[in-house]
Amino acid sequence: MTATLARHGRVAVITLDNPPVNGLGLETRRALAAQVHAAEADPQIAAMVITGAGRVFSGGADIKEFGSPKAVAEPNLLSLILLVERATKPVVAAIHGTCMGGGLELSLGCHYRVAAPGASIALPEVKIGLVPGAGGTQRLPRALGVETALNMIVSGEPVRSEQLAQVPGQRLIDRLIEGELIAGAVAFAEEVADVRPLPRVRDLKAEHPQADAYFQFARNTARAMAKNFPAPVRCVDCVEQAVKAKFDEGMRFEREAFLGLMWTPECKALRHAFFAERAASKIADVPEDTPLRPVQRVAVIGAGTMGGGIAMNFLNAGIPVVMLEMKQEALERGVATIRKNYEAQVRKGKLKADKYEQRMALLSTTLSYADIGDADLAIEAVFEDMAVKQAVFEQLDAVMKPGAILATNTSTLDVNRIASFTRRSQDVIGTHFFSPANVMKLLEVVRGAETARDVLATVMALGKKIRKTCVVSGVCDGFIGNRMIEQYSRQAGFLLEEGCTPTQVDRAIEKFGFAMGPFRMGDLAGNDIGWYIRKRRYLEKPELRYSRTADLLCEMGRFGQKTGAGWHDYQAGRRDAIPSPVVEQMIADHRAALGITPRKISDEEIVHRLVYSLVNEAARLLEEGIAAKASDIDMVYLTGYGFPLHRGGPMCYADTQGLFNVVEDMKRFARNPHDDAAFWQPAPLLARLVAEGKTFNPA
Asked: Could you say which residues form the signal peptide (predicted)?
């Protein structure tokens, strides 16, 4: 059974028991309905308490049933809530831990609600592109007040029970229970067992003194803050109905809004991202119960921008860090930068002063490898050069204790070769943090040919602890993200040669939804970094063609924001990208030298050449086994490269466009005499999926 009944005198305590979050899947709904019927039929029972087993009340819908017939099979959630609401005996929801989505909607169908302090309460459906679909937009404003409820519904963010209990006039929480929740809930149920009529949230009024003006303001705000997502505005529309329409009419409006959003590309993208993030942590040949190595102290080699950012992740998680550098002044600069970052958070109210001091107290520094030998994990964050990496790993191999994990933060270099510099290749792994490392969510975990499974499992678990989205990559030049971005950058260069300006390309891709266009991105990262990589490519892959414009730019010393000039011009103290006549003339001169007559290129062509270059290279990565799943690639781009969330990642976007259409566009690009025809030959996997009528991500 996924819902059990226990008698406490005249009170039946019905417990949802569907771990880990008591999701309201079909079996749980059926079991709960059966127990409510049983309590109703028992003359010895005067009241009911519904609660959740373990540490949560209910996290809402069972995500394993999303999109399946089970999600709507009877009793569906609406029917279940109606059953509870129509019970002839009082039903009390005993809320603790987490009460979200359908779990909160179920509690709102109960006649009373009691809660433990610290319970996390939310309607997070907006985060997957939906409005609440089982009465949340109609009952919560009646129970909590219009403005508080709308803020919760539009944001999807959780609020603590004790905070909600203090809202003036609220009817959401009838009593906060200090101490043992079930005992308190049973005592409350005894108090109200004979009270009639039974109170129902649906019978309360949702009112606002200036409804028209308030909802218009809320609608405008939602549009401005979530311009690519329709769900927040529909949330406002639904709550407006709670104020202006009868309850049943509002319920119909909410249901129509829910179903209308379910099939939008934005909802599909958000649901895809939701599942993809969870799937990324699952590795086919690494069981979930793989024993983990203890990581209680971390060493970071290098106190530069990347090393300092990496160190902050562990300090934030309460893990002591020792930071190593070759010179004292470098250490001092690194520590000063960490302090500056934390002090900025304190000034903004994002970090309490005592927390700042606690974190800094966990940081120690050294100039000697001998001082880091007892660390459980060492992360190298030094210059991206194989000879430098070799020197570091030979030292680590000599001093680190047996069983310590040795990690490299390389963004492109061969992790297997780095592992070969040690006598413990099974302990070596890649941890590719993204800059700024203390902010960016993505962590590419690079699995070497001999990386031990427990090392991989430990780093994945540790990544979760430091609040990263971890995606496993195999070893290749650039791993998943940078190998793909190279093709994207090549296409951006070819677009310049054919008639575009850097500003035009950036604007087109930013209009599509990217956080930053390829040329602004290059200016931010430093154009000299790409130049360094291309020089290596010219020797290793002489057949790979690039536009010469990027090299010409670097020969002019225009390395980006750090030099005040890159593809764009920059003014001191500002990051606005200003079109550069000097760069545009350089491009025009180069174009003329190649004998290319510039042509007008549409925004659509710009976007599809850039995005489909990612898709085609990603298909090769999947074919080679570098990436395990298409959804892993989407997570890399959503969390590390600014791909628009409402598009779901490059592979999800390609699926949405239709892979047949993607390949047809690629055929047209291949006919362009100034493009790379060989690259635009569809990767074998892509060609196969088109032939079989399949997609990258299973529906």
From this structure: none
User: Would you mind telling me the total number of residues written for the chain in this entry?
Assistant: 699
Cα–Cα dist 30/23, whole Å:
12
Residue 590 belongs to domain with CATH number? 1.10.1040.50
Q: Which range marks the domain in which residue 674 is found? A: 481-692
φ/ψ region of 143 (left if φ > 0, alpha if ψ in -120 to 50, else beta) reads alpha
**Does the structure show a pLDDT above 90 at 94?**
yes
Co-location of 493 and 449 in the same domain: no
Q: Is there a single domain that holds both residue 463 and residue 488?
A: no
Write down the catalytic residue from 85, 105, 325, 380. 105
Whether 240 is catalytic is: no
What is the rounded CA–CA span in Å between residue 59 and residue 339?
Answer: 38
- Is there a contact between 373 and 400 (Cβ–Cβ < 8 Å)? yes
Residue 474's nearest CA partner among 530, 442, 429, 437 is 429
Phi, psi dihedral angles at 433 (to 5 degrees): -80, 155
The answer to pTM > 0.85 is yes
Give the number of domains in the chain: 3
Structure tokens at 499: 């008639």
- Residue 1, pLDDT score: 66
Does the active-site annotation cover 540? no
**b or e along 154-182 (b: 16 or more beta carbons within 10 Å of the residue's beta carbon)?**
bbbebbebeebbebeeeebbbbbbeeebb
Beta strands in 459-529 (DSSP E): 469-473
Residue 63 has pLDDT above 90, yes or no: no
Task: Count other C-beta atoms under 10 Å from residue 543's C-beta.
Answer: 5
Buried b (16+ CB within 10 A) or exposed e, 579-605: ebeebeebbeebbeeeeeeeeebeeeb
Q: Is 331 exposed, middle or buried (0-12, 13-18, 19+ CB in 10 A)?
A: middle
